[in-house]
Design brief:
36% helix
């Protein structure tokens, strides 16, 4: 009976099936199980389901077009600051933020600014939003380069840094929209380096997985890289404190289906890391 089911499923997988984006993975064809072997066959079906769920329908579309809105691009700045210059750096960067807010016709908005408290210490992470796609980024860069005050502040900032890195990101369409937080919160950024060619598969699984993490309003933002380090994914989570983080993550494992989502995504990962972030005083989200 098991071999018969396997043969049916293999044949069905050779056909392309048009399905919505969020469900672009194959499911098992229905099979009638004999009453006297229900338990055994249900176990076999579960094994087959795990085997086949990672098969993706072929497509000629770019994964960025399938997973996101390309008109809204996010900029993730990572600055490694000299330990003896953190105060000067913070003052300098706040002036940069204030200047960008004053410049007219600049579609460049700071979403969040954080210092790293667990992970790479003396590191600051800044998330900016560009409206209007890459054409607007080109325009923004031209305006800022021609601004003498901005150029002066940028040059001063370089004196306080050990290194810096920039990525352009797109937001996953299945994540909740970004909502700025108030009060006292901490953030966690979980970053993943994926195997090339697995981004759609990652999206397939996380489109389901995110539903297990909505109950405590913890998802803040989810992105994948477009320029910079490629096949990078960044998930931002918001918690009241470390204890709430622990309780929330433990509760997720009690949600039926979460363990399967984790099992499907682990083989896609080459490297991962977690950082705990605290908002800076001038961060729009707290």
């Amino acid at each position: 009976m098991f071999n018969s089911i396997l043969k049916q499923c293999t044949l069905s997988c050779t056909k392309q099936i048009a399905v919505p984006l969020q469900f672009r993975c194959l499911s098992l064809s229905s099979a009638k199980l004999k009453d006297n072997k229900d338990l055994e066959n249900n176990t076999n079906e579960g094994w087959l389901k795990k085997l086949l769920v990672r098969r993706i329908e072929p497509t000629k579309e770019q994964h960025s077009r399938m997973l996101s809105d390309k008109e809204v691009i996010y900029e993730l700045q990572t600055h490694n600051v000299r330990p003896d210059s953190t105060d000067k750096y913070m003052k300098n960067y706040e002036q940069v933020v204030q200047l960008c807010q004053k410049i007219t016709n600049l579609k460049y908005e700071l979403i969040g600014s954080w210092s790293v408290h667990v992970g790479d210490l003396d590191q600051y992470v800044h998330l900016w939003k560009h409206q209007g796609g890459y054409a607007e980024i080109d325009k923004t860069n031209t305006i800022l380069i021609q601004n003498q005050e901005y150029t002066k502040l940028r040059n001063q900032c370089g004196q306080f840094l050990r290194s810096r890195h920039l990525q352009y990101l797109l937001a996953f369409s299945f994540w909740p929209s970004i909502e700025l937080k108030s009060g006292s919160n901490i953030y966690e950024i979980r970053s993943y380096s994926l195997k090339p060619g697995t981004m759609i598969e990652w999206g397939n699984n996380w489109a389901r997985a995110i539903n297990h993490r909505r109950s405590n309003d913890e998802p803040f933002a989810g992105f994948f890289s477009q320029v910079g380090r490629l096949y990078n994914v960044h998930h931002f989570w918001c918690y009241k404190n470390l204890e709430v983080r622990t309780q929330t993550r433990e509760a997720a494992w009690m949600s039926p289906g979460w363990d399967e989502c984790v099992a499907y995504t682990v083989p896609l990962i080459k490297e991962m890391q977690s950082k705990i972030l605290y908002p800076t005083p001038f961060s729009p989200t707290q």
